[in-house]
Amino acid sequence: MNKVGLLVVLSGPSGSGKDTILSELAHKGQNIKVSTSLTTRKAREWEIDGEHYYFVDKDYFQKKIEEGQILEYAVYGNNYYGTPKGPVDAWLEQGETVILKIEVNGAEKIRSFYPDCVSIFLMPPSLKELEERLRKRETEDEDEIQRRLLIAAEEIRRSVEYDYYIVNDAVECAAEDIYAIIRAERHKTQRMKYVISEVINNA
Amino acid sequence: MNKVGLLVVLSGPSGSGKDTILSELAHKGQNIKVSTSLTTRKAREWEIDGEHYYFVDKDYFQKKIEEGQILEYAVYGNNYYGTPKGPVDAWLEQGETVILKIEVNGAEKIRSFYPDCVSIFLMPPSLKELEERLRKRETEDEDEIQRRLLIAAEEIRRSVEYDYYIVNDAVECAAEDIYAIIRAERHKTQRMKYVISEVINNA
């Protein structure tokens, strides 16, 4: 039986709660692989190389782009952020569910490479709530908060490009929603074709 | 906010466990409405009118067909079986999830009337297991069992027409699968369009 993995793209404005939900999903022990991005920015004190990001230098990043090993990348400030291709393809071949946390332009690229992927847009309960969450972090100054809110508004306008839309009112509930989506998608007839053709041949 | 209900079509060979799963789903208290069919056959001793079927006479059934109040119907032996339109439309308008238990030809008709419906094919673990289940019932004679197995083989061949494919190895697990499909489908962007356009207008 051929295995068919499931690629899930998760987007949402900064402050929508993507990271909290991903760690909630990981705790459910659902054989879900979360792709780790490559970045050229410096690690923060609490960040672990290979867990939060792979921290690399610009030459290495550039080389990986040229080798076609970066699925999509974006530049913020002076830093590159990208999704490595190798682990994603290896997991999909093993039949795993792979989640990419990615912004809207990156998601568009992933959809063109992997038309069978499933994309989920995570919404904060409201823009007001989003602003409060960004302020609570106290890691960004006022200009940065305003910039993120502008980007958020643009991202929200593009949420219609996604297959699924989840409002993150409560983390546990939103994580359950994503888990249900994964469970449902794994039962899509098009993903079960190898199983089904086997059954039909025996019928 | 406009409400958009979700119509779910559940098919599967006789003996695949549709009824057991539907009662399992009803016990989960998930605001799931299961459509009750109309039939002209006589009620069995343990059957309750309005619960297992609406038991009606042929004139009434014929009249309802002419009035366009029967979404689909089939004839087995001398008896009519059909899905009444009224309750389905009323529930969908209220934003409910409505499940129709229906065979493959009926499912095809429902898809043409309700293109947004979601269809699920329920498979027994194997044809051998299906045969055993039919025998265990002891309500059908050998000819009838053989006839049902032939129909089952034909239905299984048409399972690829469905959106989702579930193997009923364990009732609880299959019910959870269907519940996940319902939860996921309710988060499809196309079904959330009223919510999303409201959010976008405020962004």
Helix content of chain A: 40-55%
The H-and-E topology of chain A, N to C, reads as EHEEEHEEHEHEHHEHH
Return Rg of chain A in Å: 18 Å
Strand order of the biggest β-sheet of chain A: 2-7-1-8-9
Any idea how many domains of chain A? 1
What overall geometry of chain A do the principal axes of the alpha carbons give? globular
Under CATH, the topology of chain A is which?
A: Rossmann fold
Question: How far apart, in Å, are the first and last alpha carbons of chain A?
Answer: 17 Å
Q: What's the CATH H-level homologous superfamily of chain A?
A: P-loop containing nucleotide triphosphate hydrolases
CATH architecture of chain A: 3-Layer(aba) Sandwich
Notes on the protein architecture:
2 copies of one chain form a homodimer. The mean pLDDT of chain A is about 90. Helix content of chain A is about 45%, strand content about 20%. In chain A, strand 5 and strand 6 form a beta hairpin. Chain A is α/β, with parallel strands linked by helices and about 200 residues long. The longest helix of chain A is centred in the last third of the chain and has 16 residues. The first copy, chain A, is built from 8 helices and 9 strands. Chain A has a 5-stranded parallel sheet, sandwiched between helices. The first copy, chain A, has a 4-stranded mixed sheet with strand order 4-3-6-5, with helices on both faces. The first copy, chain A, has one domain: Rossmann fold, CATH 3.40.50. Chain A is globular. Chains A and B meet through helix 6, strand 9, helix 7 and helix 8 of A and helix 6, strand 9, helix 7 and helix 8 of B.
